[in-house]
Design brief:
single chain, four-stranded antiparallel sheet, two-stranded antiparallel sheet, 7 helices, globular
Length: 169
């Protein structure tokens, strides 16, 4: 399986990521003084700190580093528009970089390092998603929506996520 997962960050966060040696979850980031531009919606980040998974009732979405299964995410489009009222950042997508990881390698790393992981069939920042912690359920993801070029009718499903507990080097 050569499935890729994608995390987007502002390029000015790279020094911070390099100094910690990992991408950190929002729950961890709120405890350290991370440098760099926040490109997310703070309201949704706060909500993710409250939402739990059905797979792990003691783990919140915000306890995990989020990845999308699609390289051209809804969030990247929103950033390109430079005008979302709930995002302070208005600099467009040019300084946004994709960090790409191999799905299987990340799962293998998680197993060796006692880190839990899940994937969702839609946006984990909403209250309406299903989560799974077994790759045999990957077919529950709407892959047509994930790869859709035009996604007005499948926006939430396009935002299916992979989430790993705490951090990812």
């Amino acid at each position: 399986m050569n499935l890729k997962i994608y995390h987007i960050v502002h390029v000015d966060k790279l020094p911070s990521i390099m100094s910690t040696g990992s991408l950190l979850s929002d729950a961890k980031l709120y405890k350290v003084m991370e440098m760099g531009t926040n490109i997310g919606m703070e309201k949704i980040k706060q909500r993710r700190l409250q939402i739990t998974f059905s797979s792990y009732r003691d783990m919140h979405v915000g306890d995990c580093v989020p990845f999308y299964f699609c390289p051209r995410s809804v969030m990247l489009y929103i950033l390109s528009q430079k005008n979302h009222p709930e995002i302070d950042y208005k600099g467009g997508q040019e300084p946004i970089i994709h960090l790409v990881a191999n799905f299987k390698r990340v799962i293998d790393w998680a197993g060796k390092n006692s880190k839990r992981w899940v994937f969702t069939d839609s946006n984990a920042g909403s209250h309406h998603f299903n989560d799974y912690n077994d790759t045999k359920y990957l077919s529950m993801i709407d892959w047509k929506a994930v790869h859709a070029k035009y996604w007005i009718d499948c926006r939430e499903k396009k935002q299916a996520e992979f989430l790993i507990e705490d951090k990812l080097p």
